[in-house]
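LOG
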Amino acid sequence: MKSWGAMWVTTICALAAALGPSLAAGQTWPQRPVRVITPFVAGGNTDSQARIVSERLSAVLGQPFVVENRVGAGGAIAAEFVAKAPADGYTLFFAASPLLSLPLIQKVNYDPFRDFTPISIVGIAPFVMGVHISVPAKTVKEFVDYVKTRPGQMNYSSGGTGTGSHLSAALFLARAGLRMQHIPYKGGAQSIADLVGGQVHMSFGNASELIQHSKSGKVRMLAVSTDKRSAQLPDVPAVAETYAGFRTYSWNGYLVPAAAPKPIIERIGQEVMKIVREPATAERLNNIGVEPLGNTPAEFAEFMRQDAAVWRDAVNAAGIKLD
């Protein structure tokens, strides 16, 4: 019979052998370019954040982090692509909040909790309720009163069915008792372009997509979707100031296929946390209306669980049914 000492040595050697490849993966990764898959079009808020932070990851880790836009189905195409990708750390998903809401309203071939491992949230931001300048309303209440006198005559745009902009608007309409036609686009940039052009009357968009047009006098920002005013837009009221309890917001962060090595997940998470706190990076994010966050994989996982409940309530309140 082996002595306890010999057994201990044998156990340690076995653990080392088992952990060796995983630990080595974290130490040697990345050895080639890393793909960063985004679900929306180039030029939008999600794409901009992905490029800002991935650019810094490239510099810090010594390999290109190449952003690829896989657009369609409200983000499901990108999610399904990453879910099926090799779990080797060379395909990352720069996801957005619709990752959690899409399964509630349409059939998708991914599970947001089973198929992905969260790494770190880059930033969070409110959706901003904007109207075309032809709409005379200057407050949420004035807008509601204006639309109520024109049932079915007005429309609103979104970055796609099931996106945060769509659900935020749908929830708002449900709370306010309004009827408006929904016009979905293949991304936030196109949605806001038609708002600016007057083809649509209202949209819940990202701050980065609306601030510049507000300054030029082409759209009017009536409210933010978070439960309190945004530090970046202190003069814009929250919808909750008119409809208590109203709350939606967007987030963007890195995820990876579920079985990716833990050391790689931890390394990416650590680097993202550092990068979003860099003054230069934080300023770039603030300039597009994003509040830098940078949290741990465990914190991101808990955030997703809580956010899923928020979107479930939003879908139910808006009366949106699974296709």
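LOG (cont.) second protein
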Amino acid sequence: MRPLAMVLALGAASAMAQPWPQRPVHVIVPFVAGGNTDSQARIVTERLNQLLGQPFVVENKVGAGGAIAAEFVAKSARDGYTLFFAASPQFSLPLVQKVNFDPFNDFAPISIVGTNPFVLGVHISVPATTLKEFVDYVKARPGQLNYASAGAGTTTHLTAALFLARAGLQMTHVPYKGGAPAVADLVGGQVQMYFGNASELIQHSQSGKIRLLAVSSAKRTPQLPDVPAIAETYPGFATGTWNGFLAPTGTPQAIIDRLAQEVAKVVREPATAERLRKIGVEPLGNTPAEFAALVQREAPMWRDAVKAAGIRAD
């Protein structure tokens, strides 16, 4: 029995020493398929499948502004086989609603795939071709018009609410379970305004169904050089979003570092970078430490946005 026990022990030790990953990795996306976050996850995991030799399976767990997915990942095993492809709303969400996770303590940052501003889109029925004309139009109709978001407490919601507060406007908030259905209702005219990602809105602008009036970044973006920044009218206004990989806190550092290196490699490949830029995303691929520093820097901005917008946690 002793030789057999030794063989079994050596086999177990060998299995534990095998490099990650040894089986499929599940990547949880908090928003619906087809949106900006989902598109980035699929672009990057397609290459990770090839580079790491195991399937990276994208799963959409939608609801509560991303809280359902976040809680699921936070409670998952710390073994590198359940990852969170998150966006900045998961760090602002606890400011506006009660959630069962702590974004700063329950997750280990890995790497940000890319960043992008939001684009202010309005339905074609709105007779405004400039930001000023839109502001004047809404001011003349307080509370009569609707604006969409990708979910209550998401950065699309906070960006819109912050803009309305700065401009002194009153509109009714209509939250959706992600960007795709919000865009669908903007195109259909059920809502009049939505702060979305360029990837969601450009095609509908080109087909003449909506107009793009402004971007939320401090300056104009290369993808939309003719669309002014809100800051040109309201100095100091600037918001945006990121999408990247997180793991449950306690995941081995070796796995986090390995994946961060692979993500950085992938997003800097010319072919992948081009695919990201085509959907309005600027590739990043930073380190876990840089990722952690970024979310800490952003925290005061979103707290200020919630305060300025008068949003209170339920």
